[in-house]
Amino acid sequence: MLNHAIKYEWLNLLRDRWVMILLILFLGITVFAVRNGKEKVEDRMATITKEKEKMVKLDRKMAADIDSLNKNLKPAPEAWKDPRALDNIGWNAPRVVAMDAQPLAVISTGQSDLFTHYAKPKIYGEAYTLGFSELSNPVQLLFGSFDLAFVCIYLLPLLVLGFSYNVLSSEKESGVLRLTLAQPISLYQWLFGKLLLRFFILTSIVVASILFSLTIFDIDWLGNRGAATKLILLVTVYIFFWFLISFLINLLGNSSGSNAVTLIAVWVVFVLLIPSIISQTANSFYPVPSRTIMIHEYREAKALAEKKADEILKTYYREHPEYAPKDTTQQNQYSWWLGNFAASDVINQSVQPVLDDYNEALNKQQSWVNRLRFLSPAILLQDGLNDLAGTSPAHYTDFRDQVIAFADTWRHYFIPRMFNNEKMQAEDFGSLPTHSYSSAQVPSHYPADLMGLLFFLTLTVAGSVWVYRRNSFENVLSV
């Protein structure tokens, strides 16, 4: 009897053209969303490629100039333009530290519209923790990005609810439900079967639309089957959750209008209200110190240290005797820079408590959100998609740490040579420190996010069983 009911449900859907409407609608918005994500990723990679090409071109020019100067083929320039000066290389020819896009970066913008994807650490300057600032204008940040994550999190549940909100109520209002349930089949099985058919139809449309969109925009999901499989699994579980919510509400036996209002209210709570409350409480409980004050204190410490550069340098020599000049009769051409290097340690020590407070507040906010994300399946899906796309807060925190670490590597490559009063040679460009971004150290939230969604499925199924046992057949027909 159940197979017979499902067969006629399929025929009714084809007759109403629901399947074709859903296919055209979802395919259109998916293609548009993936196209937007592709454009953002292409802009990102084009910027990184341009900066790297400029770096390579500058290296070649400086190496050629050094070779010409050493062979006396051209007159020596001013000291601050001399390519043989290590300070000139360390300041004017920094390496590009870039965060390349992950294969599935197109699916979720995540934090990528907030932070920079490349940095060029120099031998001296403001702490690089101050350099990771928001890049987009407030209007764009307010409205967000129309990417695949937005489609799946916000729009897909509305399609599910529109496709299933009146499965039981329409049958009851037309008088067909009494005849159907006069057959040897339970209300629970009949309703679940009809919604399960719709779930398979919509999921097939969604999966086909996503894979088709990735394919036409040359996203190598076949070469990243593991990530693509995780994406499909996460979206499928999310779709199933919303079908189960509709199943639960339909079991109450209310009218179609009442079902629609109730389901929209559930959508508002899970997708809009809970994420907003979590965000606001994070800002309230763990307010971030003023960034302006932090930068002001850094610059004050910098100005004070520069006034005492000579005194600080003498103290630095006492603490680092290996850098002390061996020939005191020869003037070090980098004397001004050496004082600044010594002063920078004093500056960093003085502003470190401010930076620690700032970073601690950010870490506490993120920890708060990570703990409470299990209150909403929408947050779990967003977090999982960001993880697959490589645009999560954890990825950008790791990138910032890598930039800061490389800034120290770059600086310490030059410091000993400058204290020894050395000069740059053309062949030295091949030995300059380089950086290769890796996200291997970023912890993955995907397993926890998937388990969280499965928990919501279990909870909803348990709720539907409880409602079915509590409501008798006559109560459903009479509501």
Report what the structure shows.
The protein has 479 residues and is mainly α. The chain folds into 2 domains: 2-23 and 148-284 and 450-478, no CATH class; 35-145 and 289-446, no CATH class. Helices cover 70% and strands 1% of the residues. It is built from 17 helices and 2 strands. It has helices at 2-16, 18-70, 86-92, 138-143, 148-164, 167-174, 176-181, 187-216, 225-251, 256-285, 291-307, 309-319, 335-372, 377-389, 393-419, 446-470, 473-478; strands at residues 97-98, 118-119. It has a two-stranded antiparallel ribbon. Helix 5 (148-164) runs parallel beside helix 9. The longest helix has 53 residues, at 18-70. The protein starts with a helix and ends with a helix.
Whole-number count of domains: 2
Beta-strand percent range: under 5%
Helix content range of the residues, please? over 70%
| Secondary structure tally: strands | 2
Cα end-to-end separation: 25 Å
Low-confidence stretches: 133-143
Largest sheet: 2 strands, antiparallel
Strand order of the largest sheet: 1-2
Overall, the morphology is: elongated
**Number of H/I helices:** 17
